[in-house]
Structure of Phenylethanolamine N-methyltransferase:
Amino acid sequence: MEEKGTENGVAAMAACYQGFDPAAYLQYNYTPPRADFERKDSIVPWKLACLHRAFTEGDVNGELLVDIGSGPTLYQVLSGCEVFNKVLLTDYLEVNRRELRGWFQDEGASSLDWTPYLQHVCKLEGRRPSAWTEKAAKLRQVVKDIVPVDVHRPQPLSLDDLPSAGADCLVSCFCLESVSPDLAAFTRALGHIGRLLRAGGHLLLIGALGESYYFGGPGVKIPVVPLNEAQVCASLKESGYTLIRLEVYTLPQDMRVGVDDVSGVFFAKAVKE
Ligand code: SAM
C-alpha cells in the first residue's frame, strides 16, 4: 500500500517536470540578485565558494566526477573540472540535456552567458579573470558526456556510463529534494545515488532548506520536500554517508524574488562509508 503511494508520488513529480522551461529557470535563479558577483551575500557566489573550498582541500580526488541532476546549469562543475579528468553531466529531462549540449557544442546556443561564472571561479582560484577562456576549454575537454538519470531508480544511470568501481565523487545541487514526493523518497534517492559512488568517494550535496515549491517555468509550480538541517544530516547517515561538514546560508530578504519559497541553502560534504 505504502509502496503504491510512493510510486504515485514519484509519477506525480515526473508529470510536474513535463512543463520545465530551462531558459526561464536560468533566468529566475542564475541572474541578479541571486547571481550578483559584486555581492558577498548573493546565493550563487556562496555556492561557488563552498564548491571551490571542497574541491581544493586535497581530499577530493580521482578520475571521475558525476553531477546528478545537472539541469540546464554548469556552475556546479566549474571547480571540479580542474581536479577530475572525466566529468559526466546528467539530467532526467531531454530539454535540459539539450540546453547543456548547446554550450558544449556552440556557446552561442546557450540561454545564459556563463562567462561571469567562469571569471568568478578563476578569481577564487587566484587566476586572472581573463583565464576564463582556459577554464571554458578545460570544461569542454573533461566533460565526456551528458546522459539521462533517474534518482528514483535503484540504478539511476545506465551501467554503460560508469566504471564498475563507481565514480570517485558525486556533486548534486537542488535535485533530490525537488524531485522527491516526501522525506522517505529523498532519503531513498540519496541511497540510490550512493550506489554510483566508490567506497571512500565524496558526495558534495547542495540543496534547499524550508522550501515547499519552486517555479520551473511560467505557471509550472513544482512541489519540494521542505528540509531542515537535522533531516539532511539524518538522511545522509541513514543512506551510508559520513558527514564531514554542513554549511548553511540564509536567504536575505531581497533574494526572495517570488520564484520559490526557499528560506536557506545547505552545503554538505560527505564521504561514502
Ligand atoms: N542542478 C541544477 C541546479 O543546481 O540549478 C538543477 C536543479 S532543478 C531544481 C532539479 C533538476 O532535477 C531538474 O533539472 C530536473 O530535470 C531534474 N529531475 C527531475 N526528475 C528527476 C529524477 N527523477 N531524477 C533525477 N533528476 C531529476
User: Anything to note?
Assistant: The helical segments are 2-16, 22-29, 43-56, 94-105, 115-124, 132-142, 183-194, 229-238. Residues 2-272 form a domain with the Rossmann fold fold (CATH 3.40.50.150). The pocket of S-adenosylmethionine is lined by residues 17, 20, 69-71, 73, 76, 91-93, 96, 149-152, 173-175, 178-179 (CB under 6 Å).
